[in-house]
Design brief:
mainly alpha; 434 Repressor (Amino-terminal Domain); 5 helices; 0% strand; globular; Lambda_DNA-bd_dom_sf
Length: 72
């Protein structure tokens, strides 16, 4: 899950700090998600969507990339 978050962030040209500020979490939390120390919550996925952190991606697409792909 963390790898997918990192890929989405980098694909969108964002730093950890930029993403953290956009969704109102700490830089450390983003780093923990990306490194697999913490699991990303549904609430955080919704924050990413609501704040258009990755442009105008649909909520379902963000969820699929960050959550569902890890089970395939």
């Amino acid at each position: 899950m963390g790898d997918q978050l990192r890929l989405l962030r980098e694909y969108n040209g964002m730093t950890i700090s930029e993403l953290a500020e956009k969704i109102d979490v700490s830089n450390k939390m983003i780093s923990n998600y990306e490194n697999g120390y913490n699991r990303i919550t549904i609430e955080t996925i919704v924050k990413i969507y609501n704040n258009e952190a990755f442009g105008n991606m649909e909520l379902e697409e963000i969820f699929r990339i960050l959550v569902i792909n890890i089970f395939e």
